[in-house]
Amino acid sequence: MKKGSMRSLRINTEVRRELGRIISQELKDPRVHPMTSVVACEVTTDLKICKAYISVLADEAARKETMAGLKSASPFIRRSLAESINLRNTPELVFIEDESIEHGITMSKLIEEVAENDRKAREARGEEETDGGDDE
Q1: Is CATH 3.40.50.300 correct for 6-99?
Q2: Sequence ranges of the domains in the chain
Q3: What is the tens place of the pLDDT at every residue in 82-117?
Q4: How confident is the model at residue 1 (pLDDT cuts 50, 70, 90)?
């Protein structure tokens, strides 16, 4: 099965959706932060292993606690996944911390900061802001 085949794409999407539901609604581990989401899943072609990329919007300590909680709850999550998705094999779960959302938020803040500094510099020079539109 090719990496980008429709079957593997459907399986990855369904596993990601179900993992997100299980983590947010069924998992009762207090170590798992409420702002935990499953960004992506990659299930191998033989359905033996699933790499689940997890994003946690919290501080470093809470992220580590969440990853530890997910790792210890892996058998429960796998069993719940087997009940909700009918696959030939239920994959072993490998949780990988994904920091892309935090990185995106940081980059957005930096862009806003640069834009604000640029606006202040223009005001200091006495230039007017242009909105790029035509005034009629």
Answers
A1: no
A2: 6-99
A3: 999 988 889 999 999 988 777 788 889 999 999 999
A4: very low
